[in-house]
Amino acid sequence: MVDYSPALMTDMYEYTMLDASLKDGTANRKCVFEVYTRHLPEGRRYGVVAGIGRILDELSRFLLSDEDLRFLSDRKVVSKETISWLENLHFSGSIKGYREGEMFFPNSPILQVEGTFGECTLLETLVLSVLNYDSAVASAASRMVSAAKDRPCMDMGGRRTNEWAAVAAARAAVIGGFQGTANLLAAQLYGLKAIGTAAHCFTLVHDDERSAFASQVEALGRNTTLLVDTYNVEEAVKTAVEVAGPQLGGVRIDSGDLAAMAQRVRNQLDALGATNTKITVTNDLDEYALAALQSAPVDSYGVGTMLVTGSGAPTCAMVYKLTERENSAGVMQPVAKKSKDKASVPGRKLAYRSYEYGLAETEHVISGSETQLAEYRPAEGWKDLLVDYVDHGDIDSRYQGHAAIADAHEYRAKALRELPITAQSLMKGEPVIPTEITVL
Fold first, then answer.
1. Which domains does the chain have, with CATH numbers?
2. What phi and psi, each to the nearest 5 degrees, are found at residue 47?
3. Mean per-residue pLDDT for 22-40?
4. CA distance 82 to 72
5. Which of 1, 290, 304, 430 could cross-link 156 (Cys pair, CB 3.0–4.6 Å)?
6. What is the pLDDT at residue 2?
7. Average of per-residue pLDDT across 328-343
C-alpha cells in the first residue's frame, strides 16, 4: 500500500489555523466539534452511517514523519514553532457518535469530537471525506438491498471509481447490506467475501466458447459461474450445461433486457436439468432496476457504477462545525454560526430515538452544556444513539476490523426494520421521521 500520513489528508487551512492559534494561545482551548448534515439527498428518506471504523484506523496513525514535517516547513505552511508542536502530534481527545449501520437524518449529531482546538481542527477534512463518501455508498447500498428483497447484492464497482475509493466503497457496501465484493484488497483488509470468475475477454481469447467454458470449469470446478452473453445466450447456456453438467453453479447475464432474458434462461436451464443453477445479472444496476427485476427469476445481483457513486448522491453533505469552546476565562461556552441557511445549533449533543408500537417515531437531539446533559433524563423507551469511540486518546478496538463490519451489517438491517415501512419506498419524499431539537 502507499505509505502516507493521514495527518496530511487535509486542507491547508487547517494547518494555517493551527499555526495562528498556537501563536495567539487559542490552540489549547478545549473544544467540541460536531459532524452532521443539514439535509438528506433530495427525496431520500434516511441515511446510513458508515466510515467510523476507517476513521479510527487512520486516527491510530495520525502523526507526521520527518519527511512530512520538512514538507510543511519547506512550503512555509507553518512556522518553526508549529513544526516543534507537530513533532509530538497525537490525538488525545475523545470521540463519540452514531454507530456504523445506524440510520441518520438532518441534524443528527453523527460524530462529536472533543479535545483542544489544535488537534481537533486537523481532523476536519479527513473525517468529512471518509464519512461523506462511505455513508453515501452505504445509504445507496441499503436502498438497493431493500429493492432486491432477499436476493444477495455484490459490489462490482471498483473499476468505476478511484482505486482507493473502491476499497472504501466495498467496506461501506457491506455495512449497507451487500454480501461481498470483487475487490481483493478490500477483501484482504476487512475480511470480506470475495467474488468473481471471468469476463468477456476470457471467452474471446479462446478459439470458441466451449473451450473457454471447459477451461473455466477445469480451473474452478463445476460450481463456477459462466458468463453466457458474449455471443448468443441460448447457445451459451446449452454449451455451459453440456460442459459442466446439470451441477453447474451459475450463469451470469450482463446485457439486454435482463428480466426477459433471465426468464428464458431459467426455463432453458430447467429444461436441461440444471434446476439448481443460479442466475446472476449485472449491467449498470441501481435500486430502480433491482425493483423492476423483482418478478424475474434472478438469484443475485452484481452492482457497480451506481453503488460507488451513491446512486446519484455521491456525498451526504456532512459538515464539521465547532459547537462549544473554552473562552478566555476558562469556561466552556456554546457557539454557533448564524449564517443565512447555514445556522448551526450551539452546544454539545445527546441523541435519542423514540418509538411507538415498535416503530421509530422521532429523532430527538438535545443540546446543552456538559453539566446540563449529564443531568438530562430521556423519556422511558428512548434509545440512546451515541457510543464512545475514543476516550482521551484511547481507541475502542471493538469498532475496528471485520467483526465491527459484520456487526454493522446486521445492525443496519435491524435499524431499518424499526423505521416506518415508507423508509423503503423508492418514491421521493421527506425524511421518514422528524428530528426535534431541544436546547436546554
1. 6-137+313-439 (3.20.140.10), 197-298 (3.20.20.70)
2. -125, 165
3. 97
4. 10
5. 304
6. 64
7. 89
